[in-house]
Design a protein that fits this description.
The complex is a heterodimer of chains A (about 210) and B (about 500).
Chain A lengths: L2 H22 L3 H21 L3 H25 L4 H4 L3 H22 L19 H10 L3 H22 L11 H5 L3 H4 L13 H10 L1
Chain B lengths: L1 H9 L1 H16 L9 H20 L6 E3 L4 E3 L1 H27 L5 H19 L3 H19 L6 H32 L4 H14 L7 H18 L7 H8 L2 H8 L2 H16 L4 H24 L4 H21 L3 H28 L15 H4 L1 H15 L5 H15 L3 H27 L12 H19 L2 H14 L5
Antiparallel strand pairs in B: 1-2
The chains are: A mainly alpha (about 210), B mainly alpha (about 500).
Chain lengths: ~210, ~500
C-alpha cells in the first residue's frame, strides 16, 4: 500500500463518520460542525486527486463562508430539538428499508460495469489546475459564466425586494405642532337629543336603529 | 475578435433585455411613486426592441454562438417572438392590478425582464449547462415574484412550496444531465447526438445502456415537473391559487414556450436515438395528465385552481404531440403551445379584469350573472372557455385536432380515443362557467373598472382565439416550417 492510499482510507473513514454524525447528532450546532469537518475532509480527498482548485474553493467558500453563516443562523434560531426529532425512531425502519432498496437499485446500475475508473492521466509537474479552469471558464464557458453572474444579481435583487421594508413612521412628538394646536383641531361639537328613559322591550330595536 | 463580435450579434436580443433590466433597476431609485409609469413604458419598449432584434437579425437562419453554447434557429426565433409578444400583453394586463396592490415597483419589472431573459436563454440553449442556467434564472425570478406580496400568507406558502419542489426538480434534471455527460463525455447537445449516433452504428445495443436510460428518466422527470405533468403536478394547483393572479399568469402562460423548447432541445436534438424510451415515458405522462387534469378540475370551486387543473390537461395534449416523435407531431405541439398561451392569457386576463382593490375574482361564484353586468366581457369569457374546451370554431379545437391527428399518424389510436373522451368530460367544467355567466343571477354587482388599453387588448386577445381558429393555416405553417428547417436530421 502506497502512502497516498493509506491517506485516502483515513480521510474516507473520517468523511463517512462525520457525514453520518451530521444527521444523527442531537444538537444542531454539533451537526453543523460535523458538516464542516466532512467538507474539510472532502477537500483533502480532492487534493489527493490533484484537483487543488476545487479543494481550496471548498474550504474557502463552504467552510469559510457558508458554514459560518449557517452556524450563526442555527445558533440564533430557537430550535426545539425534541420536537424536530419526534418520530425519528418509529419512521426509521420504513425509511431505512426504502433508502436501502434505492441504494441497492442505484448500485446495480452504477456498478463497476459502466463506471470503471478512468486510466490515470499523468500531468507535468508544473500543471496548474487553477489556470486550466480559468482558461476554459473565460473562453469556452463564457456564456454560462456570465449568465451565472446574472443569476447572482437576481438573487440579490430578490433578497432585497423580499426583505427590505420602508422605514416605519416614528412616533415621536413634534413640540411646535403641539403648541400651535387650536381648540377646533381637537374638539368636535356634536348635537344630540337628550336621552330619555325607555322601556326594556323597546331597547333592542332602538339600539339597532342608532 | 471576429468570433466574439458575431456571438454578440447573434445574442443581441438577450443582451438588450439584460442591459435594460439593469437600467430599470437603477432608474427606479431616482423616481418617486407617481412616476413609476416611466418604468412600465421602459419595460414595454424593451420587449418591443428585443422583438424587433429577433426579427431583424438573421431571422430564420441557423447560427451557433459562444462555442456551441447558444443557437439561433427558426424554432428559437418563432418561440422568442411569441414569448416577447406574450410578455408585452401580460404587462398591459397586470399594470392596474399591481398598482392597486402596492406591488407596482421597479423590482417587479426588473425581475419580470430577467425571467424573460431566462426563458430566451432556455429557448436558445444548445448546451446542457446553458439550458440549466437559463432555467434557474427563470425559476429564481418566479419564486421571488410569487412571494412579492409579502404580507399575504397564502402567497408566501405558495412561494415556499414552489421553491422547495422546484429545487428538487432542478436537482433531478442536473442528475440526469450528469448521467448523460458520463456516458457521452460531452455537454454539447450536438456532440451528444453525434456520439450517440456513432456508438449506435458500432453497436446497436448501445442505446440499452442502463446509465443512459437512468439519465433519461431523470431528465424527463425534471422536464415533467417544470411543465406540471402528472405525476409531478402536485405543486401546480397550490401555486396557481396562492400566487397573486398577475404572477399566476406569468407562471401559467409564456414559460411553456421555454419548457417546450427545452424538451425539444434535450429529447429531440440531443437524445433522438432514445426515442423509443422517451416516447413511452411521455405517453404515460400525457395520458395521466389528460385524465387527472380534466377529472379533478370538475370538483374545483376556485377559478384559479380550476385553470390549474385545466393547464395540467393541456400539458397532456402538448406531450401527446411531442410523444408522437415525428416532425408533424413537433409542429402540432408547437401550435398547441401557442394556442394554449393565447388562451391562458385571455383566461387569467379575465380574472384580472374582474378583480378590484381588496377583491380577487377567483371564485366561480364571482362569475355568476356576468352577462347582466357586462355582456361584452361575458362574451369574451365565453370564447375563451369554448376555446379551452376545444369547441369547433375556436383555436382550441384546431390545436387539439392537429395534436391528435399527429398521434393517430404514428398509430396510437386508443390513446387518441381516450384523449377525446377525456376532453369531452373536461368540456363540462368549462361549460359550467358559461352557464354561471349567462343563466345565474349576479352575486357581485360592482362595476368593472379597468384601464381602456387593457380592455382593448383583452378583447383582441379573446377575438384572436376565434380568428386563429377560423384561419389556422398561417400559424400552423409557421410552426411547420420552423420545425422542418431547424431539424434537418430526421429521426
Amino acid at each position: 500500500m502506497v502512502f497516498t492510499d493509506f491517506l485516502f482510507y483515513v480521510l474516507a473513514t473520517i468523511l463517512l463518520v462525520s457525514a453520518s454524525r451530521v444527521i444523527t447528532a442531537r444538537n444542531p450546532v454539533q451537526a453543523a460542525l460535523f458538516l464542516v469537518l466532512s467538507f474539510f475532509t472532502a477537500s483533502g480527498i480532492w487534493l489527493l486527486l490533484q484537483a487543488e482548485f476545487l479543494a481550496i474553493v471548498l474550504v474557502l467558500v463552504y467552510v469559510g463562508a457558508v458554514m459560518v453563516l449557517f452556524l450563526f443562523v442555527v445558533m440564533m434560531l430557537d430550535i426545539n430539538i425534541d420536537k424536530l426529532r419526534e418520530g425519528f425512531w418509529s419512521y426509521l425502519p420504513l425509511a431505512g428499508t426504502i433508502g436501502g432498496l434505492m441504494a441497492i437499485e442505484m448500485a446495480m446500475i452504477l456498478g463497476n460495469k459502466y463506471f470503471a475508473a478512468a486510466p490515470n492521466v499523468s500531468r507535468p509537474a508544473a500543471y496548474s489546475d487553477t489556470a486550466a479552469i480559468g482558461h476554459v471558464m473565460y473562453t469556452e464557458y463564457l456564456l454560462p459564466f456570465e449568465l451565472a453572474s446574472v443569476v447572482l444579481l437576481v438573487a440579490i435583487v430578490a433578497a432585497i425586494a423580499l426583505t427590505l421594508r420602508e422605514k416605519r413612521e416614528s412616533k415621536s412628538m413634534n413640540p411646535s405642532q403641539q403648541v400651535i394646536v387650536k381648540k377646533a383641531d381637537r374638539l368636535r361639537m356634536v348635537k344630540m337629543r337628550s336621552e330619555s328613559e325607555v322601556l326594556p322591550n323597546d331597547q333592542a330595536d332602538k339600539g339597532d336603529a342608532a | 475578435m471576429d468570433t466574439i463580435n458575431t456571438d454578440l450579434f447573434i445574442s443581441m436580443p438577450e443582451i438588450t433585455m439584460l442591459s435594460m433590466a439593469m437600467f430599470i433597476l437603477i432608474i427606479d431609485l431616482f423616481l418617486n411613486k407617481n412616476n413609476r409609469m416611466i418604468i412600465y413604458g421602459l419595460a414595454q419598449m424593451t420587449l418591443f426592441a428585443a422583438a424587433y432584434l429577433v426579427l431583424s437579425l438573421n431571422a430564420f437562419a441557423i447560427d451557433v454562438a459562444y462555442n456551441g453554447m447558444f443557437i439561433s434557429d427558426p424554432i428559437s426565433d418563432v418561440l422568442k417572438l411569441a414569448t416577447l409578444i406574450g410578455a408585452s400583453i401580460m404587462l398591459v394586463y397586470t399594470r392596474h392590478y399591481m398598482q392597486l396592490r402596492q406591488m407596482f415597483s421597479g423590482e417587479y419589472y426588473a425581475l419580470f425582464l430577467f425571467a424573460i431573459v431566462g426563458m430566451m436563454v432556455m429557448i436558445s440553449g444548445y448546451n446542457l449547462i446553458t439550458i440549466y442556467v437559463g432555467l434557474e434564472l427563470l425559476s429564481l425570478c418566479v419564486y421571488a415574484l410569487v412571494a412579492l406580496d409579502r404580507d399575504n400568507a397564502r402567497a408566501t406558502e405558495a412561494a415556499m412550496k414552489y421553491f422547495v419542489l422546484g429545487a428538487l426538480a432542478s436537482g433531478m434534471l442536473l442528475y440526469g444531465m450528469s448521467m448523460i455527460y458520463g456516458v457521452t463525455g460531452s455537454l454539447d447537445i450536438g456532440t451528444i447526438a453525434e456520439r450517440l449516433k456513432d456508438a449506435f452504428e458500432q453497436n446497436p445495443d448501445f442505446i440499452h445502456n442502463p446509465v443512459l436510460i437512468l439519465g433519461l428518466v431523470f431528465i424527463v422527470s425534471g422536464l415533467a415537473f417544470k411543465f406540471g405533468a402528472v405525476p409531478f403536478h402536485m405543486w401546480v394547483p397550490d401555486v396557481y391559487q396562492g400566487s397573486p393572479t398577475a404572477i399566476t399568469m406569468l407562471i401559467g402562460s409564456i414559460p411553456k414556450f421555454a419548457g417546450f423548447a427545452m424538451a425539444l432541445r434535450l429529447l429531440v436534438f440531443g437524445l433522438a436515438y432514445l426515442v423509443g424510451d422517451w416516447q413511452d415515458m411521455l405517453l404515460v405522462m400525457a395520458v395521466m395528465s389528460i385524465a387527472i387534469g380534466n377529472i379533478t378540475a370538475i370538483a374545483q370551486t376556485n377559478l384559479k385552481r380550476m385553470l390549474a387543473y385545466s393547464t395540467i390537461s393541456h400539458i397532456g395534449f402538448l406531450l401527446l404531440g411531442l410523444m408522437s416523435g415525428s416532425l408533424n407531431g413537433f409542429a402540432s405541439s408547437m401550435f398547441y403551445v401557442s394556442a394554449y398561451v393565447l388562451m391562458s392569457l385571455a383566461g387569467f386576463g379575465m380574472i384580472l379584469l374582474l378583480s378590484r382593490k381588496g377583491h380577487e375574482a377567483e371564485q366561480l361564484d364571482d362569475l355568476k350573472g356576468l352577462n347582466k353586468r357586462s355582456p361584452w366581457t361575458a362574451f369574451l369569457m365565453l370564447i375563451t372557455m369554448f376555446s379551452m374546451a376545444g369547441v369547433p370554431p375556436t383555436v382550441g379545437f384546431y390545436a387539439k385536432f392537429t395534436v391528435l391527428q399527429a398521434a393517430l399518424h404514428v398509430g396510437f389510436i386508443w390513446v387518441v380515443v381516450f384523449a377525446v373522451l377525456m376532453a369531452a368530460i373536461g368540456a363540462f367544467y368549462y361549460l359550467r362557467v358559461i352557464k354561471l355567466m349567462y343563466f345565474d343571477e349576479p352575486v357581485d354587482t360592482a362595476l368593472i373598472d379597468a384601464p381602456l388599453d387593457m380592455k382593448m387588448i383583452l378583447s383582441l386577445n379573446a377575438l384572436a382565439l376565434l380568428v386563429v381558429g377560423l384561419m389556422p393555416q398561417g400559424l400552423l405553417e409557421l410552426c411547420g416550417v420552423a420545425i422542418a428547417t431547424s431539424l434537418p436530421h430526421l429521426l
